[in-house]
Design goal:
Serine Threonine Protein Phosphatase 5, Tetratricopeptide repeat, disordered C terminus, single chain
Length: about 140
């Protein structure tokens, strides 16, 4: 004689399935996905990409929630590419403050943004290994 599934087992299975299907990160990403895709398809439209990233930041600020990881850094890099070095550095610093694990990388981004044209970029462990290998 087979034992039928208990109602509890069926409910637990349904709840687990529903929880997996509706899982979210808890961050406000806005239209980041669409903006990034559009930017990859048409990188010349830098203004639209900057506006979309800024909208994600503003929406997060208004909601009082934590910024998604990498958004400040990506916005900073987009600013840097558009020639707004001082603003880029501000957002690199904001990324380092919001996400401490990104601080070493953001410090390197800041150092590279601050260097004068013609100067060698800041190096780290990878740059040291490359110099040793080339010697």
């Amino acid at each position: 004689m087979r034992k039928p599934f208990s109602r509890f087992a069926i409910l637990a299975l349904a709840a687990a399935t529903a929880a997996c299907a509706t899982s979210t990160t808890g961050y406000r990403w806005g239209n980041y996905d669409e903006a990034l895709y559009a930017h990859y398809k048409n990188p010349q439209d830098q203004k639209a990409y900057l506006a979309a990233l800024k909208a994600v930041i503003q929406e997060t600020d208004r909601a009082g929630t934590k910024i998604p990881p990498g958004i400040y850094a990506e916005y900073g890099f987009a600013l840097y590419e558009s020639g707004s070095t001082a603003d880029a550095i501000t957002y690199f610093q904001r990324e380092a403050n919001a996400w401490p694990e990104s601080k070493p990388f953001m410090e390197k981004m800041i150092a590279n943004a601050q260097r004068q044209p013609g100067q060698a970029p800041a190096t780290g462990p990878a740059g040291s290994a490359e110099r040793k290998a080339g010697s």
